[in-house]
């Protein structure tokens, strides 16, 4: 956290800045990049291009006298099988694990992603970082998430702080992440 002067109504005030690294992980093609683009740039594209390695986006949020910079790390879906995730995960304060509600195998894979994350990254106090499960492409189907009680129990059983349905195509990601 840093402090620097900011002008407010002609008076000098101290503005606090916070930088948080947040991971966005999950299998190939689940919509991680689309969620990030919708949230950061308010855009959506039907053109799919796989992320190679890692990509970054920055979202700046201003609240009263504080600035929060969310550094979103978009990790390629195939990276869980490589050696680089430990490097990519380093110093993250939170994570979203994304699955595609129309592809059950991507839901099954979230447990492996969570295990990979928890085995390679912990907070200074030894706790796992806060991880939220995102059920993406909910505009295309809800078979996997039509039972909220089961989804809540799944999150509790596997160490997620919660879950949300998202759709980058229909702006549900931007609303979710902004709240």
TrEMBL record:
Q: Mention any Pfam family matching this sequence.
A: Ras
Chief location category: membrane
| Methyltransferase is among the record's keywords | no
**GO CC annotation terms, alphabetical:** late endosome; lysosome; membrane; phagocytic vesicle; trans-Golgi network
Q: What does this protein do, in the record's words?
A: The small GTPases Rab are key regulators in vesicle trafficking.
Give the UniProt keywords, A-Z: GTP-binding, Lipoprotein, Membrane, Nucleotide-binding, Prenylation
The signal peptide stretch is: none
Q: Which domain of life is it from?
A: Eukaryota
Q: Which family does it belong to?
A: Belongs to the small GTPase superfamily. Rab family.
Q: Give yes or no: UniProt keyword Nucleotide-binding.
A: yes
**What is the scientific name of the source organism?**
Parambassis ranga (Indian glassy fish)
Q: Which SMART domains match?
A: RAB (SM00175), RAS (SM00173), RHO (SM00174)
Coiled coil ranges (UniProt) are: none
**InterPro entries the record matches:** P-loop_NTPase, Rab29/Rab38/Rab32, Small_GTP-bd, Small_GTPase
A single GO BP: phagosome-lysosome fusion
The record's subcellular location field reads: Endomembrane system; Membrane
Gene3D superfamilies found in the cross-reference section = P-loop containing nucleotide triphosphate hydrolases (3.40.50.300)
What kind of membrane protein is this, topologically?
Lipid-anchor
Which Gene Ontology MF annotations are present?
Answer: GTP binding; GTPase activity
- Name it: Ras-related protein Rab
**SUPFAM superfamilies cross-referenced by the UniProt entry:** P-loop containing nucleoside triphosphate hydrolases
């Amino acid at each position: 956290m840093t402090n620097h002067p900011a002008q407010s109504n002609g008076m000098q005030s101290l503005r606090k800045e916070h930088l948080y690294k947040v991971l966005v992980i999950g299998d190939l093609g689940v919509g991680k990049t689309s969620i990030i683009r919708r949230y950061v740039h308010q855009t959506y594209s039907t053109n799919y291009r796989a992320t190679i390695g890692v990509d970054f986006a920055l979202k700046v949020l201003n609240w009263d006298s504080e600035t929060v910079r969310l550094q979103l790390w978009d990790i390629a879906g195939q990276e869980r099988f490589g050696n680089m995730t430990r490097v990519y995960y380093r110093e993250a304060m939170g994570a979203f694990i994304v699955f595609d509600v129309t592809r059950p195998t991507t839901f099954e894979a979230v447990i492996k992603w969570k295990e990979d994350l928890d085995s390679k990254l912990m907070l200074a106090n030894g706790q796992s970082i806060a991880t939220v499960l995102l059920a993406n492409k909910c505009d295309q189907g809800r078979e996997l998430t039509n039972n909220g009680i089961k989804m809540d129990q799944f999150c509790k059983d596997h160490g997620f702080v919660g879950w949300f349905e998202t759709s980058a195509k229909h702006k549900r990601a931007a609303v979710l992440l902004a709240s």
